[in-house]
Amino acid sequence: MKKSTSILWGIALIVGGGIFALNSLGITSINIFFTGWWTLFIIIPCTVGLFTEKKKFGNLVGIAFGVFLLLCARDILDFDMIWKLFLPVVVVCAGLKLVFTGIFGKKKPAPVEVEIHVGSGGANTAVFSGSEINYAGQEFTGTELTAIFGGIDCDLRGAIIEKDCRINITSVFGGIDLYMPENVNVSTNVTGIFGGADSKVFHRPDGPTVYIEGACIFGGVDIK
Predict the structure, then answer these.
(1) Taking Cα atoms as reference points, which of 125, 120, 153, 124 lies closest to residue 137?
(2) Which of 52, 136, 145, 150 is positioned for an S-S bond with 158, CB 3.0–4.6 A?
(3) Inter-residue contact 175 to 149 (CB < 8 Å)
């Protein structure tokens, strides 16, 4: 995926640089800074993502939004329509995502029944704020994290994790960063609506598994 992304961005830069060079030499007179050119900063990354990322839906929405802005900038459509249609379109797109995921998406494994321990760390919530949690030296058996218009950094690198456990997450217009120790596996079962979970933890067959479950709505979870 990273190789494909690099190739596509490389082609885009080569084409852009070539046009600048040809214009400078007087060979062509292509106007790169046409009316609405700034919408390309939305359209191009989403187009690249459409070919390089597994999740296509968000990129399709981004392309549609970028094209809509381009048409507005060129006076083909009215900018006032953005604010009238924004919320309905978001709701419809979220519904379509859930429908298509339910019909065509892979069936997710059933939630693992493990005890959630909230005695030492408790349920952690960040609303319009930030929160940093560190379980260094503590036995960790699970927790609940909720970020609403806020962010949470949960550091488990120094935690003692000896058995399978679960972290319930909810991210609404917020972000959650999870830092995992080197001896654990991670299993994610997160429903994403214009958001999702990204795990950079390698599989470790001999370690306990941390099950991360919940929902991200215009938010994200980064597992490191």
Answers:
(1) 120
(2) 136
(3) no
Cβ atoms 197, 220 nearer than 8 A: yes
CA–CA distances in Å: residue 107 to residues 148, 171, 185, 188: 28, 22, 20, 13
- Which of 77-81, 156-160, 218-222 has the lowest average pLDDT? 77-81
Is the pLDDT confidence value at 71 over 80? yes
Could you read off the pLDDT of 135-177 as tens digits, one per residue? 888 888 888 898 988 899 999 999 988 888 889 888 888 899 9
The token pair that represents 145 in the structure block: 């994290």
> pTM score, two decimals?
0.53
Whole-angstrom Cα Rg for the chain: 22
